[in-house]
Amino acid sequence: MKENKLVELSKQFAVDVVNLCAEIKEKRKGNVLLNQLLRSGTSIGANIHEANYAASKPDFINKFQIALKECYESDYWLGLFKDTKMITEQEYKEMYDKCSKIRKLLISSVNTAKENTKGD
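Structure (tokenized):
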């Protein structure tokens, strides 16, 4: 099921974000900016998880759309970290690929959910 895969991928992405930010902080780089990536990177999974307990189909869609926005924000911070040499090109690519996979699944899920609500 797509939602289960999303839950798993987004949780692993959050773990990876936390670990990456801890590594950067240990190197004494980035300080304040780390909180931005921590917030957006962990919010993706939190919103996907919360969508499983949505009160309605529109609420479900809204939670997934928030998770999608957080994916785009995480992409931004990862790119900034790469461009400022806070992370390596390889670290960026690995994180970007994971975030991109989640984003594609979210887009597909949102589109499917919207299609399914047209008859309601």
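Residues 89-117 form the longest helix (29 residues). The chain has a mean pLDDT of 92.
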